[in-house]
Amino acid sequence: MAAAALSGCVVRLIGVKASETLSAAILNQSDPELVGSGMPAYLLILDGLISQHPENPGLLSAGAQLFALYGSRFATAEHAVTLTDKARRYGQKSLCLVHEPACRWGTADYDGLVADLKNVDIKSIGPLYSYAVGWLSNLQATSSDWTAVAELPWVQAVLERTLELDESYQHGAVHGYLGILDSLRPPALGGQPDVAKQHFERAIELSQGRDLSIKVEYARRYARLVFDQELHDRLLNEVLSASVESPGYTLFNVLAKQEAAILLATSKEYF
Amino acid sequence: MLGRRAGHFCRRLLGFALVALLSGTAAAADLKIASVAPDGSHWIAEMRAGADEVKMRTAGRVTMKFYPGGVMGNDAQVLRKIRVGQLQGGAFSSGGLVERYAGMNVYGIPLLFRSQEEVDAVRAKIDPVMAAGLDKAGFVSFGFTEGGFANPLSNEPVHSVDEMRRKKVWVPEGDQISFLAMETMGLSPVALPVTDVLTGLQTGLIEITFASPVTALVLQWHTKVKYITALPVSYSMGVFAIEKSAFSALLPDDQKIVREVMARHLGQLDRESREDNRKAMEVLAKAGLQTVNVNATDVEGWRRTIEGLYPKLRQRSDIDVPLLDQLLAVLADYRRAHPDQAR
């Protein structure tokens, strides 16, 4: 029995390591086309590992993040709905395994969710982050549905708890997500561009400027919202002149450069 | 990772407000138009599509530049900028144009309408009159877009006026008609800017607010209330208007094109708005809001309390009394023809 249990632990460990290696291989790629065409095979492998080890939070978290990545960046709009739904489910199950009340979290009791988030501790930050990212990717994919608008405050609450636990987690990525959420709406509709600006600045600081996608979102969301062309163009020019090579960011940086060029080309027209 | 589709979160943000305009003195014009709708929202996307079509069909003589997200300020600030020629038009809430044309207040009179059918019957007759009034006041409009009915939202069920009298009720800052209506009903309204309502609900400064389902979702008030009362308290709409002298400076054929194209796109937004509110209502229910149904006796109670409002409205300079009378006559005709709905 003991041997069998130990064996199970090893397999789980291997599974997590394998998923980490796969994630790193993808994130360090500089060829988005290769990732787009090759990533489905990785996802299938990950699905296989998860089906063998359905109680492994690490694997589920990796699944949530990779399905979210593929669904939001490489899939067709229609396919993204299915893929990101899986990302969301994997993220939820991962968190549910380390924080049992999360198994019952729904979207009918906002105050209850906010109260219980206080009970999620730092040990669960990985699943908590994956839960938020998986959910967010699914909201993007279903953004034409009012349900996505309705659920935004819930995801925001999850991200804010993640930030409370460790703002530097994933090199400040949570600040980047909150920057986007706080600049979705103008002040007249309850948005908080000033808060968004602080989040973007902090995300850049925590990632030491290596994550170029933060600057692109800062320009696209905040600078356009407040009509600050100078900031907009400066951020995008910084992205275009930066090196894309950076461990863990290369893929995002290549994509960020592509988007920066498009945004800059429409700057005069927009402003 | 959020990527470009993250902006589409905004696509649906907004069922109300907004619009456009122009400048220049020659036949060619770049119309600068302000809106509170965020870039990427459905409203802005539809208006940009209209602007693209106008540009193409006028061979580039008429272009429109949009200033979304309220970057040009609120309705009053946009009007000031139009006056000095910095902007040529904008998307306004109907109340936002009242200082220029008092007719814009009549649709929003509390408890005026009893159903969507009544709205349709009235708008078919009164919208053109209102557009003519706006034109006389110096604004060219191309059709109005529905914002929908605001319903009471609360943390305890609200069936009757009596139940509301015991609560702190929100009224939009500057909305004098609603304030007057609430006083007439014996309520004690708390005037706050719309942006302070969420915090007001959180702190208990207010206990009852009003919003259409779409507005409740966009402003995230659904996270702070538990009940929505099935009573259409007031109707709102948005107006897209261009300052008349700027519009008149366009070639006559270009004017026709702008009218035809923008009316078509605004008509599309107007039609979609109702469906948006219907879907948003379903989502509110899924998010845990319970619907409070009001029985016939309670409805009668609501109506009785508002009866004293009309004599007061007729004395106000911000109400176009002849237009109100015309509207009430249309409503009376409709109710006579549809006695089964006149409850």
Can you walk me through this structure?
The complex is a heterodimer of chains A (271) and B (343). Chain A has 271 residues and is an all-alpha fold. Chain A is 75% helix and 0% strand. Chain A has helices spanning 2-27, 32-52, 57-73, 77-98, 110-117, 125-141, 146-165, 173-182, 193-206, 212-225, 229-241, 250-265, 267-270. In chain A, helix 11 (229-241) crosses helix 12. The radius of gyration of chain A is 19 Å and the shape is globular. In chain B, the strands form 2 sheets. In chain B, strands 1, 2, 3, 4, 5, 8, 9, 10 and 11 form a 9-stranded mixed sheet that branches. In chain B, strands 6-7 form a two-stranded parallel sheet. In chain B, strand 2 (29-34), helix 1 (42-57) and strand 3 (62-67) form a beta-alpha-beta unit. Chains A and B meet through helix 3, helix 6, helix 7, helix 10 and helix 12 of A and helix 7 and helix 9 of B.
Number of strands of chain A: 0
- List SSEs of chain B in N-to-C order: EEHEHEHEHEHEHEHEEHHEHHH
Approximate strand percentage of chain A: under 5%
Shape of chain B: globular
Structural class of chain A: mainly alpha
List the helices and strands and how they pair.
The complex is a heterodimer of chains A (271) and B (343).
Chain A: H1 2-27, H2 32-52, H3 57-73, H4 77-98, H5 110-117, H6 125-141, H7 146-165, H8 173-182, H9 193-206, H10 212-225, H11 229-241, H12 250-265, H13 267-270
Helix pairs in contact in A: 1-2, 1-3, 2-3, 3-4, 3-6, 4-6, 5-7, 6-7, 7-8, 8-9, 8-10, 9-10, 10-11, 10-12, 11-12
Chain B: E1 19-20, E2 29-34, H1 42-57, E3 62-67, H2 75-83, E4 89-93, H3 116-136, E5 139-154, H4 161-165, E6 169-172, H5 176-184, E7 189-192, H6 197-203, E8 208-211, H7 213-218, E9 227-229, E10 234-243, H8 244-248, H9 252-286, E11 290-292, H10 296-307, H11 309-314, H12 321-337
Parallel strand pairs in B: 2-3, 2-4, 6-7, 9-11
Antiparallel strand pairs in B: 1-4, 4-10, 5-8, 5-9, 5-10
Helix pairs in contact in B: 1-9, 3-12
